[in-house]
Amino acid sequence: QVQLVESGGGLVQPGGSLRLSCAASKSISSRYVMGWYRQAPGKQRELVASITSIGNTNYGDSVKGRFTISRDNAKNTVYLQMNSLKPEDTAVYYCNARPPPLVVGNNYWGQGTQVTVSS
């Protein structure tokens, strides 16, 4: 069973930066799409960013131009660089790994890491 372990969350002031990391406990197919989602209190979980095996990226509208997703397949790790953070970015951030379209496989979630943007 693959486990995804997030790290890098915490408290940061508005305008600050954080870098989240998500490491898989064992090898995940490099074909998997890796992503970050977030869920704020009282709101639905939403896509923050995703990256395919060949590096194609997709971002939620609210983070475009501020967040950058990247992956290191050799290390089974995906990163989320978050710049110009705003209070509305406060949420629990979850790492996700899913098979690409038309490929059968498991969908994995991390346990989440809290990001709080506040002065």
Write the SSE topology.
Elements: E1 4-7, E2 10-12, E3 18-24, E4 33-39, E5 46-51, E6 57-59, E7 67-72, E8 77-82, E9 91-98, E10 108-109, E11 113-117
Parallel strand pairs: 2-11
Antiparallel strand pairs: 1-3, 3-8, 4-5, 4-9, 5-6, 7-8, 9-10, 9-11
Give an account of the 3D structure.
- By secondary structure, the protein is mainly β.
- The chain has no helices and eleven strands.
- A hairpin with a 6-residue loop joins strand 4 (33-39) and strand 5 (46-51).
Defining key terms:
single chain, 119 residues, mainly beta, four-stranded antiparallel β-sheet, 11 strands, 0% helix
Main β-sheet, in a few words? 7 strands, mixed
How many beta strands in the DSSP annotation? 11
Helix content: under 10%
Cα(first) to Cα(last) distance is 40 Å
Shape: globular
Return residue spans where pLDDT drops below 50 for at least 5 consecutive residues.
none
Rg value: 14 Å
Which structural category fits the helices and strands?
mainly beta
Strand-and-helix sequence, N→C? EEEEEEEEEEE
Strand content: over 45%
Mean pLDDT: 94
The number of distinct helices, counting runs of at least 4 residues, comes to: 0
